[in-house]
Design brief:
By secondary structure, the protein is mainly alpha-helical. The chain is 65% helix and 4% strand. The longest helix is centred in the last third of the chain and has 22 residues. 36% of the residues are buried. A hairpin with a 2-residue loop joins strand 1 and strand 2. A three-stranded antiparallel β-sheet has the order 1-2-3. Helix 7 runs antiparallel to helix 8 and helix 8 packs parallel to helix 10. The chain is globular, with a radius of gyration of 20 Å.
Length: 307
């Protein structure tokens, strides 16, 4: 009888999908550590090759890109047995993107009640959403507390992590979200030295993201980092750097890439126009963007967390 491993609502065939992944890695002359680098933990990758775990769809796309892209789809190898788990996680992400915090809170409660047994990666990802939910919903939670929450979540799997811009590893996708949120917390401190540290951290994230060589995922992550970076540089008065990064932002983004992100990018441009002595153009751009995207207001620059 064929041996199968079950994990997180997915069925993975240890004699096909896990073996295929192992063979692709060996053909690429990569160790498990190098294959997993910046995509998932080595422990999780080891479980995947043993048929005891499965990658998320984003992790799968990243792994295929690193292992030579043989043209296989996620559905070719992994069949959802419990689609509610995946669809609810997707819903959580979408509600966070839209700033629907009450619905996000309901989705998180539902997730925990339906699936009490979580993998370490799930705990970290859901912890991220809980952190930003608290940050946006509570008037009493400040940037320092957001930093502490993010540090705890990252340190759970990387005990030696510090907020220094000299990061000695390529973060996984969830860690990118957490470090981006950490930089937002630093920028919300009101301390110029911490705000400069936030800028350094975002610069480092951009460089590390480019090293991953995963174009599809890299573009969306870069957009989020660049929006936060531009907002912070404008606020700090580093207008030349902000103009440079804004130009880079618009080479990465398009309307089809997500209306909310495009709206935020236009707001960055309007802020820069304001600071460079062109308030009329800034006002016109804000008005046009609000009409197009039906946005009447936006949160402060410090509390713009993008993905």
């Amino acid at each position: 009888m064929e041996k199968r491993g079950n994990y997180c609502g997915y069925r993975c065939d240890s004699s096909s999908s896990a073996q295929m992944l192992r063979e692709l890695r060996r053909k690429s002359c990569l160790t498990q550590e190098k294959a997993a680098y910046g995509i998932c933990s080595v422990q999780k990758y080891s479980r995947i090759e043993a048929g005891k775990d499965v990658p998320s769809e984003i992790e799968f796309i990243s792994l295929m890109s690193r292992l030579g892209d043989p043209g296989l789809s996620y559905q070719d190898l992994y069949t959802p047995e419990n689609s509610e788990r995946l669809s609810l996680r997707t819903r959580i992400h979408e509600e966070a993107l839209l700033d629907n915090w009450e619905t996000l809170s309901e989705c998180l409660c539902r997730y925990y009640s339906l699936f009490p047994v979580l993998s370490p990666e799930e705990k970290q990802l859901l912890g991220f959403y809980e952190a930003i939910l608290c940050y946006f919903q509570s008037d009493f939670m400040n940037g320092t507390q957001l930093c502490e929450l993010c540090m705890d979540l990252i340190s759970a799997q990387r005990p030696d992590f510090s907020s220094s811009s000299d990061i000695g590893f390529i973060p996984t996708q969830t860690e990118f979200l957490l470090i981006n949120a950490l930089s937002v917390g630093l920028s919300d401190s009101g301390d110029p030295s911490l705000e400069n540290e936030a800028i350094g951290l975002l610069h480092t994230l951009l460089l590390l993201n480019m090293k991953r060589s995963l174009p599809v995922i890299m573009r969306r992550t870069n957009i989020g980092i660049l929006i936060n970076l531009c907002e912070l540089e404008i606020e700090m008065g580093e207008l030349y750097k902000a103009k440079e990064h804004l130009s880079l932002l618009f080479t990465n983004i398009s309307y089809s890439g997500g209306s909310r992100l495009y709206y935020l990018a236009l707001m960055c441009k309007a802020d820069l126009l304001d600071r460079t002595g062109n308030p009329e153009a800034a006002c016109e751009l804000r008005h046009s963007a609000s009409l197009i995207f039906h946005k009447n207001s936006r949160k402060s620059a410090h509390k713009v967390l993008v993905f």
